[in-house]
What we know:
Elements: H1 4-17, H2 33-44, H3 64-75, E1 84-90, E2 96-101, H4 104-121, H5 138-148, E3 154-159, H6 169-179, H7 183-194, E4 197-199, E5 202-204, H8 217-239, H9 250-264, H10 268-278, E6 293-299, E7 302-308
Parallel strand pairs: 1-4
Antiparallel strand pairs: 1-2, 3-7, 4-5, 6-7
Amino acid sequence: xxxxxxxxxxxxxxxxxxxxxxxxxxxxxxxxxxxxxxxxxxxxxxxxxxxxxxxxxxxxxxxxxxxxxxxxxxxxxxxxxxxxxxxxxxxxxxxxxxxxxxxxxxxxxxxxxxxxxxxxxxxxxxxxxxxxxxxxxxxxxxxxxxxxxxxxxxxxxxxxxxxxxxxxxxxxxxxxxxxxxxxxxxxxxxxxxxxxxxxxxxxxxxxxxxxxxxxxxxxxxxxxxxxxxxxxxxxxxxxxxxxxxxxxxxxxxxxxxxxxxxxxxxxxxxxxxxxxxxxxxxxxxxxxxxxxxxxxxxxxxxxxxxxxxxxx
Length: 312
């Protein structure tokens, strides 16, 4: 069996080389013990993964026998995820956010699945996407807003209400099938989506959504929203003018000419006074009717549309 890191690198390179490349024979990676060893090392490094799921077990119970049992179930296609244990954490608004804590075995399998999906899809994601991605965060989103926001006149703020709870499973699976032609991987993801959650001594079925707290939930959310990102970027391109920059500001241009004349006459005091006034106004016409630039930035289920142009 190849090292997991090598396999992931190959998958990533194929995705970078061709956006149209379709992946198959991915499920066999779940028979590779090195994938589970890598998954464990990554889980162990994060304190939050010490929380127990419905089975009451934590990652301290990890051993090679456990891996072999999980792999045997996966080979027989008899692996069925357990319902997640639902807990609630406070939000800044004062409300409570539900989280689904997977069992330890499910965390291991989900982490292997997450690594494979990330290797395939991360190179496909848009520059406008910042949530739940390696080396990206709310800070990189703010940096992009600053870069794209120069001269903006309008901002549209959007929030996809209850996004994680309302992901349509059928649409999610159909999006995955465009890139992954491996029925066993699709079936495994479907089982995780349908696993449900345990709350108040009762198992609740999951008809829609992906539980916040699940290791594959963030990558699945980004795969789902990549369709939205593509749509929004196409709209932004369509609404932006072909003109590359705004026309020069006639007032600024007049000041520039006056300053040049003053310097030619040796009147440097007047030239400096004119320069002070020039610095108070934009060099380009902020109301150029022939210029429109529309940009889009998303972090998780929140997004901004930045408009530099007329209201209509």
